[in-house]
Amino acid sequence: MSNPYGSLVHFLSRYKWRYVMGVAALITTDCLSLVMPTIVGRFFEVAQTGTLTMSLISQYVGVILGVSLAIGVLRFAWRIFVFGTARFVEQDLRNTFFGQLEKLSPSFYHRNKTGDLMAMATNDLQAVRGIAGEGVLMGTDAIVMTLVTLGIMIWTVGWKLSLLAVLPLPILAVASTYMSRAIFTRSRKVQDTFGRISDITQENIAGMRVVKAYSQEAEQESVFDGANRQYLQRFMSMMRIQGGIEPLIQLLAGLCYVLALVFPGRAVLRGEIDLGHFVSLTMYIGMMIWPMLAGGWVVNIIQRGMAAFDRIKGVITEEPAVQTAPGARMPAAGAIHGQIEIRNLTFTYADKVIPALKGISLTVNPGETLGILGRTGSGKTTLVSLLSRLFNPPRGTLFVDGVDVLDLPLDQLRHAIAFVPQDSFLFSRTVGENIGFAPGDWTEEQVRGAARTAQVEQDILEFLPEGYQTMVGERGVTLSGGQRQRVGLSRAVLKDAPILVLDDCLSAVDTATEARILGGLRPVMQDRTTVVISHRVTALRQADQIIVLDNGVIMESGAHDELIAQEGIYYRTWVRQQLEDAIASAE
After folding, report:
1. From edge to edge, which strands make up the β-sheet containing 499-503?
2. What is the pLDDT of residues 366-383, one digit of tens each?
């Protein structure tokens, strides 16, 4: 089944009646504009006969003023209905684009850069709006004016003279076909390069501290300059085609004028047509210059807009890799309580060959705590990412409350999991709003209670100028790493989900603070199934079950005392960290 968002007509058709009214006003305006040459031509005919009187002059002036007033009113109407509707189309397309970004899976963001997506949401959308506004207007205007003008010319002076006067128009049609293809291809390259510029800019702003720390300002300026030069080259390549459209049209319009002077002029000299018809014909030729010019602009607008929409379409028509399966169901109890079962789970990322997890099997009952220890790249984060279905696990390998996670409603599954990553993302809002980010109407006391549990309230009240009302800045830049992690932890505590996942989220705090935080979490963890990932054994020792991952395989499992007795990886890590803590205390 085709995706309706794959066609721009889908977005334009939502406002078809506004477009109908706008086009009707535009066509009426064009028709009234075409009356003018006839009125002027008739005036000259009457004047030539010598029967012109002040009364007739007043009548002609009144008609001209009336037509001009009607044209003014109708011109206002089509601007509102056409250009205004283009803004509605842009709004709908932007909402669709953003909504799709919210639905797409992490794998999509691994393939697409933030800067390129930002370019689509800004520059590309403006180009598409050009089709919905100027494109519709000029296209309709050009077609109507050309056909009606040509029809009136034929009716006024005959088809032979009229067709001779517009003989160059087929040349324009052929040239426009060639130019439109070239503009589309080159415009797509321009948009792609603009996306790269946006991405470089976004990366350097976000990573400014790293750039300065490594004195890479000049190097980054050089990288940006290279992308900027490429953008200029590609833009100028497009402009060489686009810039040739108007001169070509002016040339063809001039040829039309020459033909209009030569053939109808000779007809006047031979007495085949009168002066009034000749004046009307030359005025109509002049009026055809606009639709010819508009036709060239329409080619440019449409091809640039379609190139932009082609990029946007690739996003809004992409099927999310992770979504609720047909026939999804909740557990028999009607709600998720937090029992986790993994059966011989082996998982490989789509762009990898070596499995990230191999043969993982374990069970965690509601209210129990699972500790996961392992070095970087051992598969710890992958395991919890599969639990919340950021990626899809193989069917029949991961169950929550006895139901395969692939068969659970996605929103219900994620609503039942409070996830705290190592790099807690904070939005450009107040501290209180960041803590209360989870769905729900949280009271101020609930927010403060979650902050106290995460051991961050004292920092908020003492070090932030406006307490919970302090704006944290983009990505929480005004807070320290430890403060960001604890605010993120507060958010998860407040959510009160049956499953709590802590993915090394205390790595930026010292051992003493970590101990206080874990102590404050004990009452919370008693009522939840908790998964704690940490590189510190002290954070895991109270867990009911601990597994040690290495290269995606469970090397050891058991409670703290059992693992110490095995004197394996866990034991060696424990001894090393004990020595490190002792040395740090002595210093």
Report:
1. 417-420, 499-503, 529-533, 369-374, 545-550, 553-558
2. 999 999 998 888 999 999
Mean pLDDT of 106-122: 85
Residue type, 115: G
Q: What's the rounded Cα separation, in Å, for the pair 339 and 258? A: 86
- Band (pLDDT 50/70/90 cuts) for residue 47 is low
Angle at 324 between CA 319 and CA 329, to 5 degrees: 165
- Residue 504 near residue 533, CB atoms below 8 Å: yes
Q: Who's near 569: CB < 8 A, 6+ residues apart?
A: 373, 548, 550, 555, 556
| Alpha helix ranges (H) inside 80-168 | 84-103, 106-111, 114-119, 125-130, 136-157, 159-165
pLDDT > 50? residue 1: no
CA quadruple 123, 208, 469, 488: dihedral, nearest 10: 100
Does residue 532 contact residue 370 with C-beta atoms inside 8 Å? yes
**C-alpha to C-alpha distance for 286 and 448, rounded to whole angstroms:** 74
Measured CA to CA, the distance from residue 191 to residue 196 in angstroms comes to 9
**The residue type at 319:** E
Q: What is the dihedral of CA 430, 435, 438, 439, to 10 degrees?
A: -60
A 10 A CB-CB count for 282 gives: 18
Least confident of 27-41, 279-293, 394-408, 537-551: 279-293
Instruction: Assess whether pLDDT exceeds 90 at residue 552.
Output: yes
Locus of tokens 């900027």: 228
pLDDT at 183: 75
Segment 391-425, tens digit of pLDDT: 999 999 999 999 999 999 999 999 999 998 888 88
Token pair for 391: 């990626």
φ and ψ at 472, to 5 degrees? Answer: -85, -10
Cβ–Cβ under 8 Å, residues 356 and 382: yes
Token couple for 25: 């006003």
Instruction: Please check whether residue 398 is in contact with residue 387, taking contact to mean a CB–CB distance below 8 angstroms.
Output: yes
What's the pLDDT score for residue 358? 96
| Positive or negative: CA dihedral 268, 273, 277, 283 | negative
Which residue's structure tokens are 């070239």?
182
With 0-12 / 13-18 / 19 or more C-beta atoms within 10 angstroms meaning exposed / middle / buried, residue 72 is: exposed
In which region does residue 330 sit, left (phi positive, over 0), alpha (psi from -120 to 50) or beta (all else)?
beta
DSSP 394: P
Is the pLDDT at 243 greater than 80? The verdict is no
Q: Do 585 and 515 meet the contact criterion of CB atoms below 8 Å apart?
A: no
Percent over 70 (pLDDT), the chain: 81
| pTM, 2 dp | 0.77
CA dihedral 36, 39, 42, 46 (to 10 degrees): -130
Longest dimension (CA), the chain: 122
Q: Is pLDDT of 501 > 90? A: yes
Structural element, H or E, at residue 362:
strand 357-364
DSSP 22-76: HHHHHHHHHHHHHHHHHHHHHHHHHHHHT---HHHHHHHHHHHHHHHHHHHHHHH
